[in-house]
Amino acid sequence: MNLRVIDGGLATLHADFELQAPQRADVEREAERRLRRLGYDRWRGRQMATGIPMPRDIHYRALQIQFVAKTLGGLATIPPDFRSDIYWPA
């Protein structure tokens, strides 16, 4: 199998991405993605429809994600690696 490196392509796209400083909207999208992965909307909808409270660990994790999003979004300079798991609850 012969493999070649193609000039341009992903290297150019990645370099352009690094030039843009992260914005609050980027942090909010990351928080929404993590909440979706957690299934928070489904649990919240079930709670509102049936009155049965969502599991405590789901509720606390969602609160932690929202707190991190608010804190990171409020920074004067948002770290470029804000999507890293070191900032978000495990």
Q: Helices and strands in order, then pairings?
A:
Elements: H1 10-19, H2 24-38, H3 40-50, H4 56-73
List the main descriptive attributes of the protein structure presented here:
90 residues; mainly alpha; 4 helices; 60% helix; 0% strand; extended
- N-to-C CA distance: 40 Å
Which shape, going by the Cα principal axes? extended
Instruction: Note the beta-strand portion.
Output: under 5%
Q: What is the overall pLDDT average?
A: 87
Class based on secondary structure composition and strand pairing? mainly alpha
Please describe the biggest sheet, giving its number of strands, its sense, and whether it closes into a barrel.
Answer: none
Low-confidence stretches: none
Question: What string, H for helix and E for strand, traces the elements in order?
Answer: HHHH
Gyration radius, in Å: 18 Å
Strands, count: 0
Separate helix tally: 4
What is the compact description of this entry?
With 90 residues, the chain is mostly helical. It is built from 4 helices and no strands.
Describe what you observe in this structure.
- The chain has 90 residues and is mostly helical.
- It has helices spanning 10-19, 24-38, 40-50, 56-73.
